[in-house]
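Team,

Forwarding the record for the chain on the shared tracking sheet. I've put the sequence and predicted structure together so nobody has to dig through attachments.
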Amino acid sequence: MKKCLIFCLIFFVLTLFNIQIHDVQANEYDFKEEIQSDIKTQLLFGDFREAVMELKRITVSNAFSPEEKLAILEKNFLICKNAAKYREAGEVLELAYLIAPAKEEILEQVHDKLTTFYAGIKNWDKCVNSHFYYLQNVKVDEEKKKVVFFEIVQAYQQMRQYEKAKLVLGELLLLCKTDADFAYVYFYQARGSFNKNEYEKAIKLYEKALSFEALPDKETGTALYQTGFCHEILGEKKNALQYYEKALPLYGNGQVVKKRMERLQASGNKSGI
């Protein structure tokens, strides 16, 4: 009799426990459906700020797996982006950083998408911040670090923060192994000097970059054209013409090069050069 009572008691406890688990799972499912429905409604009526707040609740909730959270954020990021709500789009994708520590591969995905997005809308400051957050939180090999550093340099130069770009280029120089690596470092150093109107310095750095013969056509064309421009500004017309001629088939805007060449040739004829 006593054994029977013990068995009945155990059975009752297990049944009650299963019912509670089922209720928890049901409530969790209801929460997941409800919050996603709320977000959908908010976005439909253009309430993007409230949608961002609800998405933040999802990122800190235990009801969703890291993969589910990322999928939801990416989906709503695209909705905001396509609606030209770029501020909210960035905030939505940045929320993924809250789940990233649980999965390093998630941080990798978030970094790539976020920096591409910010570069696309020319929000260079956010782009740089995303790059540095990534470098501080993920162990990357030297090749990946070089790629990220070069992108940081480009962003700094877009913001005209040439001294900061110069510091990063100094770090990059220590990582250089191939001719292409060195060529790119000198190319960006030259571009920084060119944009600061340091023409003589720019010429030397561009010539150094070109000496490796490792730059793609686009960068080679830019280096040749801007070297020619520097010579022209310095009054060295013959040198300018030589570089413009080399740049003509490679530089993106050939008409600009042609006009400069024609002007120099015309002035040369008048002066008897």
